[in-house]
Specification:
heterodimer; A: alpha+beta; six-stranded mixed beta barrel; two-stranded antiparallel ribbon; 17 helices; 55% helix; B: mainly beta; outer membrane lipoprotein receptor (LolB), chain A; 13-stranded antiparallel sheet; 13 strands
Chain lengths: 412, 255
């Protein structure tokens, strides 16, 4: 076998330009895949981050009843003693080591009114200090306003405020059904208007302090959701399982973000589609190897005939040409991966501004995407690139192996 | 999300049922047209004023919330409802023609429900604001045809089909089963323009009060929701009671 490998290597050096072309073709394909993987990893990671911090957390603890009516954000499905659960999370070292942040939240639908104008909206109630690290609405406060600092204050989406003819300093009249089914009105002082650029936020969201919401909704200290952010969101399912074993309270549900709503399904579908795109790009690159190997086989027909006349078996001829293809594939893949990782490292630090693009997406996402560097994924792409290159060189190699000795020698 | 969950379904529906009950009863009539039957239903409910107490049971899945209220109304254009159950005690609804205000004692403030909110109604509820505010006689807004007879709960009924002749109606098509003998509505189906069934109301109990048949227990269910219905039961019904018109004012609402 070794002599075949040595012969293969020597053959690659015989026509360096052609080998370089095949090498570059595979290398560029792999580099493209690695960079694409880095970008999409960052892009999808950004979407997951925003989805989880705005909506579900990486892990969400609610009542079982809440899950069955989650689309209505019921306010009568509350965890009666959230502090007891949070205490258990903090006491378990394995779980606590995974957790970056735990906070309580209540989201609920409301009717807003001002001077006879009505608008439906969504209230987000949480601890104002903690929510600074999740919703980041303090960054989008318009000039003349500020973030929530005290009870009874609210910040409102600028479009929502505009529709109701409200501004900073106005009183926001909020009507909603409390947890006991009664209809309640509460007035909040608007201290700031936020403009995130995301229509779904600016048009229908306002933020209030959690304690105000508890009182307003008559929850008796209970909260609708405990939101947990992890250090690595990919561990959500594992940690959710660990948390389930800690919670002894009845009718409490622990869900990883991937099990909530329809977004995770879209996310997973997108990930699958991107996997197929990688394979397609790698096939395109490796296709060049097929063409080049085909040319090589045609050019070296006489040589193949002589090798066969000297006693080379079909299998040896096949292996000789396949090795040439595999070398091109492996070297090209490695070189492409190195280049791709280099680009990803740069963009991982500096990021890529997609502000003009992200503004058109009705989904909260960052304006700057920081590429991800996922080494297992890079190794997978390298292996896939080498494998596809090897497979693509098989067909011309088989043609070489099947050549008739006399015909091959006579052909030139 | 279902934001209309936020409103007190009970209070609004209370007003809605006042309108619903305008479909009343009378003696047996033969060879009537659809419009004549509907006019009789409307006429049967005619009163200068009415006062009553009521219980409102809202069923949503396994949950049942019960509310009590007392109400007074002048015709079908003005109504004042005050909730008396502990959770909502002191909350008042004031309806004047097509306007609806809610008074909240905790904030001592009033909110007006208007615009598209009335049109959208209460998603997740069995009674919409439009149901509550509908006050004109149906025969003025709908083309009425007699669609044969049917039996509801063992009682022979005229079946009326109502097709909207004006745009300002909550339902394009309605189908009403009118008790042939008592001229009260025993069942009503409300449809969208597409023909989709939106709501069904059923009269569960009819009583003879002051010489007229009057539905005192009605169930309404939103067909777009699962396991949801609202049952409205009236007691202490008094017709043509003396009412001071100043009761139906915003000033009085906040007193």
């Amino acid at each position: 076998m070794n002599y075949l490998i040595r012969m293969g290597l020597r053959n690659l050096r015989r026509n360096r330009r052609r080998s370089l072309l095949a090498f570059l073709s595979v290398g560029l394909s792999v580099m493209l895949c690695v960079v694409l993987q880095g970008f999409l990893g960052g892009f999808l990671g950004s979407m997951v981050k925003n989805y989880t911090k705005n909506e579900t957390g990486h892990i969400r603890i609610t009542t079982e009843g809440f899950i069955s009516r989650a689309e209505f954000f019921p306010v009568d499905e509350n965890i009666p003693d959230p502090a007891a659960i949070e205490k258990k999370l903090a006491a378990d070292r394995a779980v606590n080591d995974e957790i970056a942040l735990v906070t309580e939240r209540i989201s609920f639908g409301v009717l807003l009114e001002n001077g006879g104008l009505n608008k439906t909206a969504m209230a987000l109630a949480g601890d104002p200090t903690t929510e600074k690290q999740l919703l980041y609405l303090q960054r989008s406060i318009q000039p003349g306003g500020r973030y929530i600092e005290a009870s009874g204050e609210t910040i409102v989406g600028d479009k929502l405020a505009s529709d109701l003819h409200l501004g900073v300093g106005s009183l926001l009249k909020v009507v909603t059904q409390a947890s006991d089914g009664s209809l309640q009105l509460k007035k909040f002082r608007i201290v700031g208007l936020f403009k995130t650029g995301v229509t779904s936020f600016d048009d229908r969201i306002f933020q209030i302090p959690l304690d105000d919401a508890k009182q307003f909704l008559r929850t008796g200290g209970g909260v609708q959701q405990i939101i947990i952010m992890l250090k690595d969101y990919r561990n959500a399912a594992k940690v959710a399982g660990q948390i389930r074993t800690l919670i002894t309270e009845k009718n409490i549900a622990v869900q990883p973000w991937s099990a909530i709503g329809s977004f995770p399904a879209y996310f997973q579908m997108a990930s699958h589609i991107y996997s197929y795109i990688y394979i397609f790009v790698l096939f395109l690159g490796a296709f060049i190897i097929t063409n080049i190997m085909m040319m090589v086989v045609l050019e070296r027909r006489k040589e193949i005939g002589i090798l066969k006349a000297m006693g080379f078996s079909r299998r040896e001829i096949l292996a000789l040409f396949v090795w040439e293809g595999v070398f091109l594939g492996v070297w090209g893949s490695i070189a492409g991966a190195v280049a791709g990782v280099g680009i990803n490292l740069l963009t991982r630090i500096n990021g890529v501004d997609v502000g003009s693009f992200s503004g058109a997406i009705a989904f909260p996402m960052d304006n700057v995407i920081y590429f991800q560097l996922n080494l297992p994924a890079v190794l997978g792409i390298v292996a896939l690139g080498a494998l596809i290159a090897g497979l693509m060189s098989f067909l011309p190699s088989r043609r070489a192996a099947r050549m008739n000795v006399v015909d091959a020698i006579k052909s030139v | 999300m279902n934001q209309d969950h936020i409103y007190s379904r009970a209070a609004v529906a209370a007003i809605g049922f006042i309108v619903l009950f305008t479909i009343g009863s009378a003696g047996r009539v033969s060879a009537l047209t659809g419009e004549e039957i509907l006019r009789k239903v409307d006429q049967n409910m005619a009163y200068d004023s009415i006062s009553y107490a009521a219980t409102f049971a809202i069923y949503s899945g396994e949950t049942v919330r019960t509310k009590q209220m007392k109400a007074v109304a002048v015709g079908t254009s003005k109504a004042l409802v005050e909730f008396t159950n502990p959770e909502d005690n002191g909350t008042k609804y004031l309806k004047i023609d097509k306007n609806l205000w809610i008074y909240f004692p905790s904030e001592q403030d009033t909110v007006k429900i208007s615009g598209h909110m009335l049109k959208e109604g209460m998603m997740g509820s069995d009674v919409s604001y439009e149901d509550a505010l509908e006050s004109e006689d149906l025969y003025k807004k709908y083309d009425v045809t007699l669609d044969g007879t049917d039996t509801v709960d063992g009682r022979l009924c005229y079946v009326l089909k109502l097709a909207a002749q004006v745009r300002d109606v909550p339902y394009e098509v309605r189908k009403i089963w009118v008790d042939e003998e008592r001229f009260t509505s025993l069942r009503e189906e409300m449809y969208a323009k597409s023909g989709r069934l939106l709501k069904v109301s059923r009269t569960l109990e009819v009583r003879q009060i002051e010489g007229r048949y009057f539905p005192v227990k009605v169930e309404m269910s939103d067909q777009l929701r699962q396991n949801s219905k609202t049952v409205f039961t009236m007691t202490d019904i008094k017709f043509n009671v003396p009412v001071n018109n100043s009761e139906f004012s915003l000033r009085n609402l906040s007193r």
